[in-house]
Amino acid sequence: MSRFWSQIVHELSPYVAGEQPKFGNLIKLNTNENPYGPSPLVLKAIAAETTDSLRLYPDPTALQLRATIARSYGLDESNVFVGNGSDEVLAHTFQALLKHDAPLLFPDITYSFYPTYCRLYGIDFDEIALDDIMSVRTSDYRRNCGAIILPNPNAPTGTALPLSEIEKLLIEHPDQVVVIDEAYVDFGAESAIPLVRNYPNLLVVQTLSKSRGLAGLRVGFAVGESSLIEALNRVKDSFNSYPLDRLAIVGAIAAWQDTVWFEESRNNIMATRNRLALSMRGLGFEVLPSSANFLFVHHPACSAKEIFTQLRTKAILVRHLPGERTNDYLRISIGTDSECAKLISALQTILGS
Ligand SMILES: Cc1ncc(COP(=O)(O)O)c(C=O)c1O
Fold it and tell me: Global pTM?
């Protein structure tokens, strides 16, 4: 607290990111990073750009990257916005498209940045309870609202909606923007990007942090009808004209183009996830069906906090999200097979004792 703070700073309750501890030999399964890292072509592209060109500002519109992404969906670059991680893309989206007279709707258990953005920008919101199997029920969103935002798959639960449910939502809310946050879509869900042509109220947000292993480069993007993209550009150009630096632009293009690396990495992660889910069920865990690179799990006989604490003493970091409906659960990111084997062995010890 300081008398120099503005009123809004006094009132903020900032998002708390997962720990990034510095100690070595850690099995880090707490922030949904990709254990395989980026394509070698990304590192090559970044090395090639690490020259005297860094004295020059990057392209403020990141046109080449936007065109690369747009072309892969048969869209125009005017349908794509890029930002410094999808967090920044989402932040601009909240300010540009989600603040209206009626409340914004999102699930009660979801990405915890959403209420933080609402408080930052003064957006009224209603949280819609997940159903008793922890899934989004789209019929619960049939109510007066200014806009809707849903992650698909949802986070931290990992459960996904079929595209038909997203389309139903778009049809039922023709006068509201519907944002689908697809941070984890490449791990087994259906993307809504093909619907962009037919629904001017749809904005899809994705990231290169997860399936392309580039959390450290900070690149995210949105796809939508060009007037929605223009709204995001208006906010961006009132905030920071150069959200992506030169290295991020060339790295992201290389990542997008290396489809072989991308397919291999996500297929490995999905296969490991399915094996880990089986092993955890074998240990008595209830595991929500996951279409993401993490599992959301609960053990009926041992508290999530206790398991979290004991794993931490064994240098295995998972995420425990305090909160009335999440307190009994752990969110576990999918690591390599060997990391997951060590996790299972540690859990056997903890649950046996
Ligand atoms: C649902 C969801 N959306 C967006 C993000 C932001 O990702 P990034 O800013 O790394 O692109 C995350 C990060 O974990 C997330 O879980």
Answer: 0.97
